[in-house]
Amino acid sequence: MPGITIGDTIPDLQVETNQGKINLHQFCADGWTILFSHPGDFTPVCTTELGKMAQYAKEFYQRGVKLLGLSCDDVQSHNEWIKDIEAYTPGAKVNYPIIADPKREIIKQLNMVDPDEKDSVGNLPSRALHIVSPDLKIKLSFLYPATTGRNMDEVLRVIESLQKASKFKVATPANWKPGDPVVISPGVTNEQAKEMFPKGFETVDLPSKKEYLRLTKV
Ligand code: BEZ
């Protein structure tokens, strides 16, 4: 699908939310932001997802990450829907803003349109999720269909990975979890790695004898 993707700067839109007007660049500039869309208010999977996001919010805020939801209904509908979300997920408080996009204009600009889901107004949003870094660039995107709810543990895991990679010259291997070793980026020489990673690193012995898989802890 054409539209903004990783590496792109998010558009500087003025959006209406249930907490008032937000300027996207201003909102996203002072930390990391998870911008996540939903097909619609008062729909079952979305109700579970927004509740789970609220349950995980503390974990995100502790890592300097703000949440910003989007659903294509209006502000009044969002405020009514929040009562259901909080009732369904015990302890959840939806303190993060939810963008209202009843005309389906914002979802086009944010590349969040589901080509297969339509109602009488037009195409619905997919379950898209962009992670925006403080320099306003999209660093990671998920794109799920309406029928698949997202896993907030995975969202938290990728935030940890992105933040490690932004701080150190490392990457996280398959099935990595916080606390596991990370790999040193290929562009770093062994000499540089000795200085960069005071805890040392282990080079995996591979049949090729190319020393490219180096593990360390940060
Ligand atoms: C849901 O949130 O459950 C949903 C929304 C639109 C289509 C299918 C499922």
In short:
The protein has helices at 24-28, 44-62, 75-88, 106-109, 152-167, 190-196, and strands spanning 14-17, 20-23, 32-38, 65-71, 98-100, 113-118, 123-125, 127-132, 138-144, 170-171, 182-184, 202-203, 214-216.
Description:
This protein is an alpha+beta fold and about 220 residues long. The two termini are about 35 Å apart. It has 2 domains: about 15-150, 3-Layer(aba) Sandwich (Glutaredoxin), CATH 3.40.30; about 170-215, Antioxidant, Horf6, Chain A, domain2 (Antioxidant, Horf6, Chain A, domain 2). The protein contains 6 helices and 13 strands. About 30% of the residues lie in helices and about 25% in strands. It has helices at about 25-30, 45-60, 75-90, 105-110, 150-165, 190-195, and strands at about 15, 20-25, 30-40, 65-70, 100, 115-120, 125, 125-130, 140-145, 170, 180-185, 200-205, 215. The mean pLDDT is about 95. Benzoic acid binds near residues 40, 43, 44, 46 and 146.
List the defining traits of the structure above.
about 220 residues; alpha+beta; Glutaredoxin; Antioxidant, Horf6, Chain A, domain 2; 6 helices; about 30% helix; elongated; binds benzoic acid
What is the string of helix and strand elements?
Answer: EEHEHEHEHEEEEHEEHEE
Say how many strands there are.
13
CATH architecture of the largest domain: 3-Layer(aba) Sandwich
What would the average pLDDT be, to the nearest integer? Answer: 96
What compounds sit in this structure?
Answer: benzoic acid
% residues in beta strands:
25-35%
User: Which outline best applies?
Assistant: elongated
CATH topology of the largest domain: Glutaredoxin
- Strands ordered across the widest β-sheet: 5-4-3-8-9
Total domain modules = 2
Unreliable runs: none
How far apart lie the N and C ends?
36 Å
Structural class designation? alpha+beta
Query: Roughly what percent helix?
Result: 25-40%
Sheet having the most strands: 5 strands, mixed
The CATH fourth-level homologous superfamily of the largest domain: Glutaredoxin
Report the total helices: 6
> In the CATH hierarchy, what is the class of the largest domain?
Alpha Beta
CA gyration radius, whole angstroms: 20 Å
